[in-house]
Amino acid sequence: MVIKNKKNNRDRMIERQKRKNKIVNQFIFQFVIIINILLFNSCETNNQFRQIDGLTNDANQQLKEFLIKSRAEKGRKIAVFDGDGTVLGQTPHYLADECMYRWASQRPNHRPAVIDSLKFQSNVSLPYVQNRIRLIAGMSLEEYRNLGEDCFNDYYTEKIFVPMKNLINILKSEDFEVWIVTASPEGMYQQFLSKVFQIPITRIIGVKSVIRDGIITDQIVHPVPQDHGKKEAIETFVQDVPLLVAGNSRGDKEMIEYSRGLKLIVNPDEHIATDQKESIADYAKRNNWLVVRVNDIPDSNFPSISSKKYGKRLNKTRDYSGSK
Description:
Blueprint: H1 2-46, H2 57-70, E1 78-81, H3 95-105, H4 112-120, H5 126-136, H6 141-156, H7 162-173, E2 177-185, H8 186-197, E3 204-207, E4 209-212, E5 215-220, H9 228-238, E6 244-247, H10 253-257, E7 262-266, H11 280-286, E8 290-292, H12 305-308
Helix pairs in contact: 3-6, 4-5, 6-8
């Protein structure tokens, strides 16, 4: 009788253990399923990309693929943008020119020799971009930054390229360092660009001179970010190779080609310059750069002091409304 009870007790214990094992196995199975679902959803979330309004489906797809691939990068992730014509409209005139000539028109006796040189120089030439600095040497950096911001607030707030601003916001959310490298005066552009794009003011690189006791001198700091100097400026001041570089003109060619990832060009010109065999638009297409089109239409109330009083040419209007 005792032996039979012991056997029954052992059988009940075995049965209870089987039930426990079954419950544990069911729990483990359900846990594995939940983890897989979470991992799947996480992968789906990581692969999501906010479509940028104003860009084509093809451009958005290329940007999505680039961003997904960039997540595997180790170390610094850098994106470099040109200023005028890339993140900021330039019609009918560059902000750097309109701001400078508005300031100069109020001071007709200020450095007339520099003004005369500016009138006859191409505003995309190296001597011209350096003379912009020489004209205002003696001004404080703070005053120069405020001058640029005032001009931006007066005439250019609606000329920020919204698709590019949205791209910059996405890049920042993906832990990119965003830099702007421009041939325009650094001090004039730093303050308003830093505020608009919410990037550190020291990541706005432009034509600059030595600052002494807060005062701008006429001693130009090299490299000057014009044409091939933009690539040299990246090497000197950013000090790493970017994953993405965006520009808009022949003057950005070397900088764009320095990218080890995505090469992007905004509103490339189809005109063939006298010293070139093909347009920058054709060059970009032949080298598989990502081409982006953004409207850049002048305001009818724009003062155009640059052309009306100082004879500078009008920049080309870009209206792609009918092609979308």
